[in-house]
Structure prediction request, 959 residues.
Amino acid sequence: MAQLPTLSVRLLRMAAALVLSLLFTLLYATLAAKNRYAERILIPMLDVLQSVPILGYLSITVAGFVALFPGSLWGVQMAVIFAVFTSQAWNMTFSLYQSLKTVPRDLSEAAATYQLPAWQRFWRLELPFAMPGLVWNAMMSVSGGWFFVVAAEAITVGGHQVMVPGVGSYIALAIQERNLGAIGWAILTMLLVILLYDALLFRPVIAWADKFKFDTASAEPAPESRVLDFLQRTRLLRRAAVVPSLLWQLSLRFSTRPAPPQGKAEGNLNRGLELAFNLLLGLLVAAVIGAVWFIVPRDFGWTEVGHVVLLGLATAARVFVLVILASLVWVPVGIWIGLRPKLARRVQPLAQFLAAFPANLLFPLVVVFIVHFHLNVNVWTSPLMILGSQWYILFNVIGGAAALPGELKEASRNLGLRGWLRFRRLLLPGVFQSYVTGALTASGGAWNASIVAEVVSWGSHTLVATGLGAYIAQATAAGDMHKVALGTGVMALFVIALNRFVWHRLYRFAETHWRLD
Amino acid sequence: MNAPTQTSEILRLRNVQKTFKTPDGEDLKIIDGVDLSLREGEILVMLGRSGSGKSTLLRIMSGLVEQSAGEVSYRGEPVRGPVPGLSMVFQSFALFPWLTVLENVELGLEARGVSKAERRRRALAAIDLIGLDGFESAYPRELSGGMRQRVGFARALVVDPDVLFMDEAFSALDVLTAENLRTDLLDLWAEGSTSLRGILLVSHNIEEAVLMADRIVIFASNPGRVAAEIPVRLPQPRNRQAPEFRRLVEQIYAIMTRRQDAQTGRRAEGVAYRMPSASINRLAGLIEAIDMETKDGGDRYVSLPELADDMQLSVDDLFPLVEALEILDLAAVREGLIALSYAGLRYADGDTQTRKQIFARQLLKHVPLAAHIRSVLDERPNHRAPAGRFLNELEDSLSESESDRVLESVINWARYAEIFAYDDDAEVLSLEDPGVVEAGTV
Prediction:
């Protein structure tokens, strides 16, 4: 009975987070793209923010928000919204920033020729151009966001559990009471919510954003949505469309000053200002490093830091092995599916759906399994980390294999390529770029999931694996914010280092050497 | 033509058919009853417009695609799957972007289990033969289109094939590069420095066919079938300007624009007629060009090959336009010659509004689908109808993609003629802004 209101509350939370993310994206990305000084601070900062595990600082933000709204659930509500916001905002912002930086030159020049004011330029040229990428990224982030909603709804801070009404808290209760049936219901509800969400929001918006696609000649069929078709045919909606159009007309009255020509502003750079800015930036970076250098050993001592780094290595090894294992399974399967267009069209959405499904709902089932068969905790809790994010590998590989040019496949048959040679020379290099994209996402997801996957419980049983995720989770439960900060910081460093030295390099290699044009 | 003896035939096709299943589960025939052979020592060119199934036929002959009915045999043996003696060169080059030139060329040998040293030796010889020396370690992306296709040729020739298949191998190249590559290939063929016993080229370029072929097989569309076979007995190298060459080109134009019942003009029969895709601007441009030639030359009929030459149009560009003009009764075609009709002449002389009116009249009169849509919209009280309704009607006799194409083409014409409007977001046809033409005047 109480399901329905909680469902709507949850959808409202998602919506609020999405609106916040959009506002943040519009401001942050525009500032970074338009102002070269801001760009040099904001973009590296975004890169770092993107690598910080969300569940790591969740407890800190919960504590902060609870302190802001003492004695009411509002603080926790805010914290959940904030967690979802942080899971969405970063890559939306990156997407918009990149689009803004790559607006086609002739369109940009046309806007300058007709002296469009900055306001119009943004709404008529830049945002529409960025729309398909932005929408796609927003949708992917919202999909990923379910995981964090579930985790954030039932978080333990400082020894007492903070419960927000929702599936997450419902599951947490079911775990305490060892109620398998309740967990089944929760999984079913979640499936339904994601399906509804997909049909009512995801598909219509993607189909709508397709009209902003810049290349007019595309071989791929345009995305379709029955809901969108229905909406576009109703008169009510067409009448409703008058409101934004009026607002737009009104807004034009306040913006008549043409935007300064883009090229000129860059030519007039003030050398002194440039130097001062660089100096200031250098000082700031030095100050941050210095502060960390002095504060960290004083608060923890180097032995603790070393211990945390070792734990990080353990988790890194686990993530590494898991990504390899998942690749060994899903790359061949993905290729096999991708080469069969009919099958690929069916499986692709299924894999995306599975990626959206919050895998933490399934954790209790695995724990029951481990407890029942007395299995090794360090080994058997590991698969939980990749349970949700392995699908990114699958659907990216399917996409890559499906996009292999037909003539290349024919050429390989004509040349008589078979078996391992065909796999090595055609299929593997052909899907490599998509695979790296998928594996990067999967690995990032696994790091995040380690915080909830290395400590799992079922009733009175609590299984703890050795790793950085467990360290953060236990520090969170104990309410030791210092340790949480240390663990989260170290994990962020690990993620940044791995991205820099492994994934981005692989990606660049694929892009330059194995790209299909 | 005398039937050649069995031994001199490399490839033989007997009554080959190919059908595809439409989404509704109906069979759509794209190749119908083709008999064809490739003889020892000849260059055979399969010439036809896009949609004539010639590329599919090439793939059937090389064992990449299976025929639905009929027999394909290579040196007396039925073809089942790719045959080692048949090498293919592709329109898009189909090079492996992650392999160097040398590795690309070696690939076919690698598949045959040739030892590494032997592979290297033969690949270098092929690279040398095709004029790619110095590019061995380059990746395909570093090469120009012409150089990439040379890699394609080297890769095909290195396995010492019996027959070389070329699927529009020169059509992705610019004019000069294509000419250069064709000449080099003909030289190799004449020298006999390769293992090749026959060459099969699929093309939609008439001049290219006459330039290279010993024999040309012309294909007709919908479904694809052999329309004519022409031996070319001109000595190599051939001169494009020679009178015999020009005569042959004109003869082929005449065959390719001819229909079975040449007595009446071309008509769109029924609502589900396969309307050619032709943009308004190109149609208008063609009408103006014909009008200009008529006024300059004094002759009412203009030669299509000359027109194509002057306007730099390939057959695939020109023929849909010509067909559209015929259907709309704006022009008439006879034996490779085209002339404007009375309506066409008035169109050429008219201003923008007059042109629209003439076009609207011709469209409603000669294109049943346009007239049908208009009458449905007239009858409905709100003057609106979903596009899906007409698509369903078309899909009774056309494939899904073909229905989309035909409807889109008619919608474009109708928008220009202002006989009905279309809202692409809602996919609804309507009489909003119907413009100058009243429904009652036609």
